Amino acid sequence: MDAAILSASSKHPKPVDRTFQYGTAGFRMKANLLDSVVFRVGLVAALRSRKLGGQTIGVMITASHNPPEDNGVKLVDPMGEMLEQTWESYSTELANAPNESLIAVYQKLQEDLKINGETPARVIFGRDTRPSGPKLVTALVDALHATGTEYTDYKLLTTPQLHYLTRCTNTEGTPQSYGEVSEKGYYEKLGEAFVRAMKGKKTVGPVTIDCANGVGGPKLTELLKYLPKASEGGVEIKIINDDVLKAECGADFVKTKQRAPPSSKAGKNERCCSLDGDADRLIYYFSDAEHGFRLLDGDKIATLAASFIGDLAREAGLAQELKIGVVQTAYANGASTKYVEKTLGLPVVCTPTGVKWLHHAATKFDVGVYFEANGHGTVVFSQQALKAFHSKNPESPAQASALSTLRALTDLINQTVGDALSDMLLVETILAHKTWTPREWDLTYVDLPNRLVRVEVADRNMFKTTNAERTLVEPHGVQDQIDALVAKFKDGRSFARASGTEDALRVYAEAATRSEADDLANKVAALCKHEGSLTS
Ligand code: G16
């Protein structure tokens, strides 16, 4: 096997002058730098599968919302979760091994981790619509052949579909079966659960869905075949931006620019939403004659879901026995945190950026609702919650109805990871149940004006944080300067952190008014830019 790996790796040499790092969402960079990285991720996937006794590992080739010339690769663990933390560093180690010592590093990992090279290895993989995808798949397949790994190429998939398929593959034929192991099985599961969750309720008017010119476009078109028609209790969906990847659309554009994609032709008060490039993020918005553009971001989706599920749990008589909580990051709007704690009366946990952190924290609750403000999130249910939804004997028709809606939600929601298509159907279901327009949803609480700024610095890794990324510990003294700036603004809050997916710092600020939030963000950004130039 080692000879096969050596020979295959010579076709995918590592550029000598590059250092790679498994970041917030795997490896992500210019696609032309990724060939050796993807090959080596194939080696890691084989090792990981063997370590887990031949369970299937997922590999997704995507750069999500990044520009079209970027690409990336990430690994998915057997239950559809993000790759276990310690394996991120093994991936980084293997990705950075000099060409001549690759086999030695691979063998050492195999030995140190006590992996039996004879154990079968299994991998499934998919990719988004980027033009660089097929060539990177070749690098991955070369590694899988060289390591004697069985594999299935699912070709184009959304990231959450790959997570779904990974879990389905590993639970097939067991009591924990997560669904049929096919893309069709995914659509059928969502379509069927949506009908059950809607309970004959009607959505009002259309929803315009911006597919970010990513893989979500063709996959949403496919999903529509499994949903009832609008006239028969479905949703009237208008798809826009389902072409090739380009700028000025998508969830990241809408969230950071705080405006609708220019291509959107939706009327006043009509529901709109945007997916990102690999369809794991979802942002809603609408335009109101009086207030103009209104954003309904990940925080608003989390609060909507938490309040709806909380009400259902109460109606089902399960409020006492189930612990419901919300998980956010530092980017959560201060008003949303206050709303969850004070109005909904639910606990909030704050974690660093990255779904792996939020997901992990959410599993500590029976119903863990987690969303990043950028629209990446889902709801996870504990075994105890699932058992209660199925085994509780209803004492009234209202209880029976609440229980059946809860059961439907557990199938409608993709519990492996944030899933824009599933989250969109969840939001549509809740709005239909509540007979809410987007305006009514928006009125639940008023966001503090906020601004996110991207700052390019010579070396973003000089900026180190603690306290769930809310406090800078390095460069020394910068946090004190940020605190001094924040103190000058009413309701001010700001933090800076290095992005894990882009070569940049991100600065977030909120304050009592729009101009103050902008001013604070720009001042903190200028400070970081200055410090970044000093530390280079
Ligand atoms: C990825 C992660 C998200 C994270 C985002 C931005 O999303 O999955 O958890 O919020 O990157 O991360 P950062 O600020 O570290 O660049 P996506 O949709 O880009 O894969």
UniProtKB/TrEMBL annotation:
Q: Where is the Alpha-D-phosphohexomutase alpha/beta/alpha domain?
A: 56-85, 118-172
The molecular function GO annotations come to: magnesium ion binding; phosphoacetylglucosamine mutase activity
What reaction does this catalyse?
N-acetyl-alpha-D-glucosamine 1-phosphate = N-acetyl-D-glucosamine 6-phosphate
BP-aspect Gene Ontology terms: carbohydrate metabolic process; cell wall organization; UDP-N-acetylglucosamine biosynthetic process
CC cofactor note: Binds 1 Mg(2+) ion per subunit.
Active-site positions on this chain = S64
**Which Enzyme Commission numbers does its entry carry?**
5.4.2.3
Q: Which PANTHER family match?
A: PHOSPHOACETYLGLUCOSAMINE MUTASE
State the organism of origin: Hyphodiscus hymeniophilus
Function text: Catalyzes the conversion of GlcNAc-6-P into GlcNAc-1-P during the synthesis of uridine diphosphate/UDP-GlcNAc, which is a biosynthetic precursor of chitin and also supplies the amino sugars for N-linked oligosaccharides of glycoproteins.
Positions contributing to Mg(2+) binding: S64, D276, D278, D280
**The entry's keywords:** Carbohydrate metabolism, Cell wall biogenesis/degradation, Isomerase, Magnesium, Metal-binding, Phosphoprotein
Family to which this protein belongs: Belongs to the phosphohexose mutase family.
Kindly list the cofactors needed.
Answer: Mg(2+)
Q: Does the keyword Nucleus apply?
A: no
Pathway assigned in UniProt: Nucleotide-sugar biosynthesis; UDP-N-acetyl-alpha-D-glucosamine biosynthesis; N-acetyl-alpha-D-glucosamine 1-phosphate from alpha-D-glucosamine 6-phosphate (route I): step 2/2
- One Pfam short name: AMG1_II
Q: Which stretches make up the Phosphoacetylglucosamine mutase AMG1 domain?
A: 200-282, 297-436
Q: Where is the Alpha-D-phosphohexomutase C-terminal domain?
A: 452-526
UniProt-annotated binding residues for substrate: E372, A373, N374, R497, A498, S499, G500, T501, R506
List the protein's name. Answer: Phosphoacetylglucosamine mutase
Instruction: Extract the Gene3D superfamilies matched here.
Output: Alpha-D-Glucose-1,6-Bisphosphate, subunit A, domain 3, Alpha-D-phosphohexomutase, C-terminal domain
